[in-house]
Alpha/beta hydrolase
Amino acid sequence: MLFRLFLLSVTLVITMSFTQSINGQELKHMNLHYGTDVKQTLDIYAPSGKESINHPVIIYVHGGGWMRGDKSNVSDKPSFYTNRGYVFISVNYRLHPNATYNDMANDISTAVKWVYDRADQYHIDKKRINLMGHSAGGHLVMLIGTDHSYLQHAGIPVNTVQSIVNLDGPIDLVKFLPKNEQYKEVFGHDRQAWMDASPAANAVNQHLPPMLLVTQNRNSVFDFIEETKKAGNTADIFVTHSLTHREITKLLGSNNNSAEAMSLTKAVEDFLKTYNSM
């Protein structure tokens, strides 16, 4: 009897770790560790029944003000993107006060490295790795995408990232923090430190991946887009007028959308198609 109970518990653990169904979407792998910290985990959603080919991947980074949030906060995005042929990976990372923003960016870079090294195992095309992040997550994916040192430190080529979608994440902290003082707890009070943490400071870097910036305020990203285009990079913008900061990620890919949310979903889908040959 005890042996049967043991076998049942082992079976449940394996099932929870490797194959699970959530709202009809097959979750291939969950709570996989890309590092030793309890927060350094990720979930992999994959197109069902299409394991014979390698797929482009979207690595998604949640928001939460660099202090909270979880990889489970993905709404309808996994089913939406797996139905369109993408592997969708949602990443957890260490948070303040247990980590600095540099630690967080290094966590995301390490997760990208983990995916890159295991691409064949999970039927991923390592030449089509795309980053997407909301709010603080948008800041982090922009930071590692525009500052080559993060991916270099992780030990992968700087051209690994195929494209970036930033869902209303701040890119110029020098402008952002004085209006959002609660986040000075994360970034401190030194203006130079804010500049160092700003993806906007990297706009002049060349050979950056194509970027789509979704924002509620065109002025907050206009200078960055103009400057990075002068450096030879590709950057597009989608300005929302009715969607709240939270709705930008919650309604992306949702079946129950407003007209603007549907336009946002299409803009992101078209952007990703452009750089993923789908």
DSSP finds eleven helices and nine strands in the chain. The longest strand covers residues 124-134. The two ends are 53 Å apart (CA to CA).
